[in-house]
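Task: encode each sequence below as structure tokens.

Item 1
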Amino acid sequence: MEGLKLTFFFSSLFLIFIITFGADTINKTQSIADGETLVSSGGSFEMGFFSPGGSKYRYVGIWYRKISAKNVVWVANRDTPLADTSGSLNLTEPGILILLNSTNNIVWSTNASSLSRNPVAQLLDSGNLVVRDADDNNPDHYFWQGFDYPSDTLLPGMKLGLNLTSGLERHLTAWRSWDDPGRSEFTFRCDHRGYPQLILSNGSVDLFSSGLWNGHRFTGTPHLKENSIYSFGLIMKGDEIYYSYQLRSPVISRVFLSQNGVLQRNTWIDRTQEWSPYLTSPADECDWFKLCGPYGSCNNENIPVCRCLIKFVPKNQRIWDSGDWSDGCDRRVPIKVMDCRSKVGFLKYSGYKLPDTRNSWYDRNMSLSQCKEQCLNNCSCMAYSNLDLRNGGSGCLLWFDELVDMREVSENGQDIYIRMASSELDGQGGFNDKKRNIVIVIFALLIGLLLLGMSLKLELRKRKNSQLKMEGSIMLSTRQGYTDKTEKDDLELPSFELAILASATNNFSFNNKLGEGGFGPVYKGMLEGGQDIAVKRLSKYSSQGFDEFKNEVICIAKLQHRNLVKLLGCCIQGEEKMLIYEYLPNKSLDYFIFDQLQSRQLDWSRRFNIINGIARGVLYLHQDSTLRIIHRDLKTSNILLDSEMNPKISDFGMARSFRGNETEANTNRVVGTHGYMSPEYAVDGLFSVKSDVFSFGVLMLETISGKRNRGFFHPDHHLNLLGHAWSLFKEDRSMEIIDEPLKESCYLSEVIRSIHVGLLCVQRSPDDWPNMSAVMLMLGSDGVLPEPKQPVFFTERNLLNTISMSSKDALASANEITITLLSAR
């Protein structure tokens, strides 16, 4: 240790000498101590230790060197500050930067995956801190770079977006305050669900959307135009989706997210020695996300600013007149489900910011006419538009949900074509007088043929009804290794008519929509007898939807257990394929435990009942059902709660069934959710009943702590929830992980035992995991438990690296972070 301290001492002296002459690099024999700085090659940026505002804490940051205002643009240890001025930044031989405190403990480090015997850390004149191999002749080859981990500032050349291969997502996070550079709830990121757009959020609440990129500009920022200061754009190439900008003139300009959640672009003015605001978002009232609700449009020149689109009316006139526009508008003439293709057309709306694109689909090569045809043939499609306005317009963008976040744009607005009843089209795609006369003549000519062919028509109708009845019973035979005769028997379910389901769900109204996953949307309905149901409707654009449809029926059609969601029937009619379930009124488990207010409704007795109920359901699937079922996607959002808060396991679209004595299998298609997937499954595609045990262990710890495993943050370390729970357990401090609302209602010994059982389920080796019968026994008894070993996927970073290296075909879908098969668009 003394030798190490001497090395740091002499290295620091040597570094001071180099910095005096403007050095921009450090190597493995050097370090930066508090009070010393590293200067970029061109002198534009400087890196060192600083204390923001009136704070006494010390941070390592990068700031502009040539301007009088010391604006920090990047912070290394923003959530792990140093308590004094004894820190030092060092470069280790493998090529990892580490920040040491006064006791030589590491408080921050980089995560370079490559190793080098001659590493060098360099501050580039772009403001990018990089680590590379000094012997590598390629100056752009980095092991690690600070630009991959932005703070609150987007510098020229930085990327704001996602690498689809590595899973690395770059986004801005505002400082908590002028005195605290720690991560706040305000974020600005490139959202890649549907067609990419830039979203400003406060936690889970979206504040502003840029609108889509149309090749020239973002439709939601018409004031952001081509200019002589900087170029900008959304880049979608290979495995990357990101926003970036480059300076065109020798000015200092930066984009940053302020502590109060406002995105700003400022330009430095030498004459006045101050920053001059160039652009701000949100800039006006109409910039606020979804201000006018579905099918509402905002215009700052109107009083009030919100109005319904033409041919639309407020959903609730009284509430709308009061100034609350969040409910939005409905079509003046509704579209009937049975007429969704034949008696509809599209009405053109010009000069608008296009709606939120997170429930959209796109194709870059379609023409506008092909786009219209694609939308017309899908009853769930609400609107379409050109994707790219360059070269006269090209590409296709379809919306599959209510249209929100629209505003009138005086210049640089865009056209959108919205699905309407034919009677509302005024000749724009509906039946005008000329078309109507042609139809009458043709009808008169054909009436005779129709009468003569009546008998044939009746016969065809009988055959069609017979076929629908046969499809409705879902004649699913062999699949996934079914060979026994009894397993080939048809799995019959009650069949529901489409018209009955349409009536029950108010024509699949958005107000009846409960949610949406990879399969498609789910709607609440009520049958004529008063029975509440949940209708899962297969989306035409679901990449794996029909496979999951058949799989769900095969797995649970004949399963009956109080802790499994009951499948009531199905509907197969034309292109429509639906599953009908019992309706559970209390949503899903994640709705309660991860919400600070809702979590208070679940005291310890209810949570312990939920944990035991889930365990009983999984045990039934593994041991007591006709087929051995492995769920493969156990997570809090797939645990539904009935009126008495009893848990029911749902969503068997990814489940697999085994015969007799089969216990494990292998797959090339890894499905599941980051944070819940077991190691042997995520890495090697090997799954077994133990895969569900691991997911159950994660679910237990989340239920007890009220924290998510994925994305868990603690100011004192970089561990995920599993690592945090295990560290507290080793120190006999497990009670610190208990969710705050539980502390007054829990039986401490019961909670500590449950944490112990949860840790046994997530140990590094699957051989150490208990089976579900053992889990039930441990939860229901007071016997001595074995000591848990260190969890697998000890940190969030380890999980992401493992997945990116071993499952390169996997991509996160919009259903939380569920892995599905990657398909090009």
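Item 2
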Amino acid sequence: MPKVSLVIPAYNIEPYIRRCIQSVKDQTFTDFEAIVVDDASTDGTNAALMEAIGDDNRFHVVRHERNRGRHLTRRTAAALVSGEYAFCLDGDDELTPDFLKQAVSRMDEHPVDMLHVGITVIPENGVTQAEADGFAAYINRPTGLLNEADILRVIFDESSGQLVDWRVTQRLYRASLFKTAFERMTDARLERAEDSYEVFVLAALSQTADGFESCRGYLYHYGIGVTGTSRISAERFGIFCSEFAECIQSTRDFIATCTDGDEMQDSCRGMIHKLLELLANDWLIRVDPSEQEEALTAFADAFNDAVVARELYRFVRDIAYSAIASEKPLPKDSDAHRLYAYAEKFAATMGAADGQEVTRAVRMKDVADEHMRYLERKDLEEQYAKQPIRILVTSHKDVDVSHALSLQPIQVGPGQQQGHTRFNWMLHDDIGDNITEKNPMYCEMTTQYWAWKNITDAEYVGFAHYRRYFNFTDTIYKENPFGEVMDTFIDSQTARAYGFDDETIRTCIEGYDLITTGVKDIRKFPGSAETPLEQYHAAPLLNPRDIDTMMALVVEMHPDFAEDVHTFLNGHKQCFCNMYIMRKPIFDAYAAWVFPLVDEWCARTDMTHYSREALRTPGHLTERLFNIWRIHMLRTEGKDWKVKELQCVHFTNPEKKQAFRPLFAERLDVSLEQVVPVVFAADNNYAPILSVAIDSMLKNADSTRFYDVVILHTNIGGNKQAVLQKYFSRYANARITFFNVWRMVKDYKLDTNNAHISVETYFRFLAQDILSAYDKVVYLDSDLVVNGDVAKLFDIDLGDNLVAATHDIDYLANLNVRGGDRMKYSLEVLDMNHPYEYFQAGVMVFNTRELRRLHSIVEWLQIASNSIYIYNDQDILNQECQGRVTYIPAEWNVTHNIFGRVDTLYPQAPEAVYADYLAGRAHPQIVHFAGAIKPWQNASCDMAQYFWQYARETPYYEVIIQDMTPGARKDSDITEVFHERALSDASPLRKIIDPIAPYGSARREALKVLGRTLRGRK
């Protein structure tokens, strides 16, 4: 029996097989056999092989009658192995003469199942030496002694740290292991990635392994065969994809046969991820750019869209990082932008992919975006520096800004607050010569100092604020009593309205020396102040003496300004906000005048006991100092200046539109398939009740799942949000996000026709876009409590159906009420083909992917603006989703008994629905307090005990009790009216009569009175 059996597959390698065989014959260790399998070569491989072997009887040649691929070629040879050890050598590679001697000696001295050896990488066919060196560095990473499961983990599991290669040719095996492993491997043809599969099986069956990477006698010719940089077609790449997929599937099939298969899953995922990276690298390097888009389709077909998106984002990350490291700009036509566009295309359709793959794609996108934003900022800075007009927009918040290059956002004091986010897309006042540390006192003046010291070439320098801009157009807009034009958002519409584009700004400014906001007559403002001095003295948070001492200082340092100080302080006019635009030399002169004054005033003033607002006094004073300087200059050396006044536009909501980031993108320990996204909708006054719903849900949640809870609202106060965030932080497997949807709904007239239904009910339509990272979400009304785990609800398979919901027993019973016209309404208004399929919308699972395909948010809200519906959004959903509903047991939405309807109305529902309701009522997973009577209005109403058992533990329990007390004094920020209703005068109750409370009945009148009370009406 030979000591070593060499396994050598050969297929169409006539140019290389001779040197391979000769390198084996030249071994100083001679106790070996070489099993060479010719896989039906069609060139002169067989003849060259036989010639090279000659009469050396240590070589055994086997020839396949038909080509079977490298894996089956090795499997053929493995069955013939008779040595103590086995080693795989590819027929286009070779060995140094002492290789076997070194490897066998090490194996004899330290016996293991697998010995990992090093290799020498020789570049071929266009592979550069740098590429070869990089590959060698990876492939020769040192390993140590490993046992059992660690062997597989260190090779494949990404969490193990630095992974070892999986080349089957880089290991000396115990022959018994080698033969057993290949016997268990598939008899299917595998190519390209067969090494990964074979080593996976070998490692999984090994008990011990060691490393001997200093032995580098295997000479690997990198670039020969399937590796290298030679071009391949999109069709050929598609074949590669199929071959990789087959190897992956074979690995999964093997795992399924193992009793410890679950422990191998992380290693399997690691193998797959590395294979996908290798495959993507082939796409980038070897597929002609003209065919790359076509090849990506094959990539996605073989795997999924998330895989493709992730690999493309990886390339973007790497290209961007290279540009950052080299400090070179990234051209607009760079591969990074082209690849990013490809990535976005596949990211938009990756929802159907495996959750972990989606998670990987999202996280890689985050890194790519971060790198690209950095480069874009550097590029933007260069563009800003080239502008002849530089109007700096001071901000300390992440806000919307105009895209005009003349309007340049600058973050002030970015390092002054602990944990303060640095906005990379802005300029920063802590770069270069600066006084950023003075921002808490100097306010926007730290921007002006930065401009003074760091802007050299601009023709004009100006200043605005993240909330206040100039109106650069000739249109005069209505102003408020304080002389400001009020608006909401900074977007494309307002940019057009106020001329936030470079051409309009240039036209407006060019030729002028000094531009300010309007010089306003203080006597026309609200209040009794008539002069700037009186106005400052009346400011409740400022110290009156400060303006007096500053004015005295101005006269002391600049006696020629005394007249101007008097004119300003005792006059009636002032321009506000420290907003102005000047020719750069004029601004430099102003800065050289104002900063010494402020610095000297600060040096003379003890502000030790000043309040936070009073500490901003230097900023307040400079607003007055500018007016004095303007008056003086226009009176003296600037009397020939060309000056202009522009309206000041005040934006109430300049903050960026809120963007939702899914939980799995925020937490590295969470994958998509673990997450249960849950959506609620509420207003400020309903927050206490909402807290009960969420708390009940999380108390019954699965500890192994993660609950991404999103609250859609327009007005929940910051204090309430903070209280709830702090309270729910006790749940380690949950995250609470308050998402303000005002921008999304402000242009729609949303109304309801029931006093107990609020406009927030329409917010559920927004979930499909806000939570677009999820293709399925749970929606829950806020007037309910959860006794079960909503993960079970979320896990329901919807297929292509749009929603999952329970039958609405109340509605279905009304269909059967004699003399009622609910059936007519269902058929004629809702246009339902099967009215008995009507569902209740308070508890639902949304197939957001399919809902997006059905209607856009704009279309949903347009439908919702129609006043023909009795039950508003619920009717709309039933109308639009009919025929595509998955019905769930009634236990998931058990409505309570008000007005005796459980006894009088519900029995009229179809028998199956009624029986289902009774069964659910006995063991409710969710109790839904639908209708006009709630536990927080009537503590003893039906099923109220379910509410109170959870309410007692919430932070708003006392508030809920207080609000039940007639005449109780209520904190406006906490209670007011409990729920802001939306029954407008323009939307009367529908003519369709509800059998439960027909017109003229005492019950109807009671509901109307209750509705008015809840809305604060008499």
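Check on item 2: The two ends are 104 Å apart (CA to CA). Residues 723 and 955 are 8 Å apart (CA to CA).
End of task.
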